Structure prediction request, 438 residues.
Amino acid sequence: MADYDLVIIGGGPAGLTAGLYAARANMHTVLFEAKDIGGELLNTDLIEDWPGEESITGRELAEKMGAHATKFGLTIQPYSPVKKIRSEGDWKVVEMEDGTTHRAYAVIVTVGGEPTKLEVPGEAEFHGRGVSYCAVCDGAFFKGEDLAVVGGGDSAFQEGLFLTRFAKNLSLIHRRNDFRAQQILQDRLLGMDQVTAVTPATVKEIGGDTQVRWIDVERDGAVERIAVGGVFVFVGFKPVGRHLFDEHIDHDENGYLLTDQYMRTNIPGVYACGDTRAQLAKQITTAVGDATTAVLHAERYIEELKHVRRSFPEAPSETLEREVERMKLQRFLAGQTIIREGDPAYSFFILTRGAASVRQNGPHGEREISTLKPGDFFGEIGLLSGTVRNATVRATAPTEVLELDAVGFRELVESSQATKDRVQSSIEQRLAKAGPKT
Ligand code: NAP
Prediction:
């Protein structure tokens, strides 16, 4: 079993972007892709809405993104399908189809989805013999034939445009008169002589002999048979991310994974990005944006988890994982006060970077009673005793602390007898050091 900081599942634009950022941040990361890297890019001929590239083929962009991430040290494992992801304490265990397993502090799921099927007679039977869901992959087999494209979204129009290179005639079959594809794509495709829009029309059946020969559509109550050698279906997309989990993961009614603004799912340490996530637009630009947010948050989450593990090695890992999600990172400059003596106590802190001085007021003014270094915690006395802060803590260098609210702190303390004992003994030591305020 190999251990990683981060496992990225899926090698489309979202996964490759997450990988690029993770590699640049020096995180111990691996990206698993079930097929070749590129994801939906490989099913796309020309891309014209990727800023900086007026026009680039999907394959070329996939290669560029892969090379870019690899250059910065990302380990990419293509043809490595993941079977399941499960939680084991604060680890995510990634089970591969080949039987191997990997552990990581966090997982970014960018597995996209699969094409929606029409679910009409003949569709499954002729899949691979004239029925296709990818023009870029299969279009060239149909040179000089009459073809049908089913659907009215961006995919149908974009793939339809690609198919006009090969099709003698192209019927664009859509269930409504209005199309949801971008206007620029509509103008281009519908302006072509060899293209006929067949609307509003519902596909009833696909038929043929060894190959597709016809498609039956119903229009205005009558069934029409259109002779075609191939049917390309683009009627939407079904996300597949949630099938990687046996434990519950929040998703919407269509199966898209639900996340917060940091791309966190409801499972701590699991992030979802790109087409498998519930969002407004399935675009390369949004996928890479999702991935950037996810990896930056994951980086912080992993670092915090490691800090909290070091500070509370005896606490159950599930508790640590849950409390890390509650913690807020706070930064202080040298000289800034983190907590002030006499103030009400609302939270608990773990110092993760920098240094601080613990100071108490006495009759002769403020004096230092101890210092804090990374890994030390403070703020527990006021919280547990229900009184005000008994000391001031001031940063003596640029300092980062993780702040945990009172509820989280109580959960942490109660999580094991050893944790309770450690916090209690720290309180006793501190009170002894503070001495009476003479
Ligand atoms: P989509 O936008 O969901 O469009 C699906 C199309 O299929 C719709 O026109 C829909 O009809 C039709 N449809 C759905 N179920 C059907 C059924 N059972 N029978 C017949 N027709 C059915 O899906 P998409 O075109 O695959 O695009 C998916 C996402 O990727 C979209 O967000 C899209 O913008 C994005 N995308 C972007 C680009 C780009 O160039 N930027 C390229 C490809 C895809 P109704 O309209 O009547 O619902």
